[in-house]
Design brief:
The protein is mainly β. The protein has a single domain, classed as SH3 type barrels. Helix content is 0%, strand content 57%. The protein is built from no helices and five strands. It has a five-stranded antiparallel sheet with strand order 4-3-2-1-5, with no helix packed on it. A hairpin with a 2-residue loop joins strand 1 and strand 2. The protein is globular and about 45 Å long.
C-alpha cells in the first residue's frame, strides 16, 4: 500500500533523513514507495531504499541558476 509519498514519485527531491543524532539531506529522484520504504535514485545508477521512519522532511529540489 502506498502512502503520502506517491505524489513525489518521479520528482527531483531533497529528502531529509535522521538516524540517531545524525541528520543529512539526500538529493535525488524518488522512484517508488512501499509500506515501509521509499526508493531514491541518488546518482544516475545508485538506488537507495530509505525507511519511512527515518524521513524527517521532503521537498522539491529546484535548480539554482548562478548569474555572473
Amino acid at each position: 500500500m502506498e502512502g503520502g509519498y506517491a505524489v513525489w514519485v518521479g520528482q527531483p527531491v531533497i529528502v531529509r533523513v535522521e538516524t540517531g543524532s545524525i541528520r543529512v539531506p539526500l538529493r535525488g529522484r524518488l522512484l517508488s514507495e512501499t509500506n515501509e520504504v521509499v526508493r531514491l535514485r541518488i546518482a544516475d545508477s545508485w538506488d537507495v531504499d530509505i525507511f519511512k521512519s527515518m524521513i524527517v522532511a521532503i521537498e522539491h529540489d529546484l535548480p539554482v541558476h548562478v548569474l555572473n
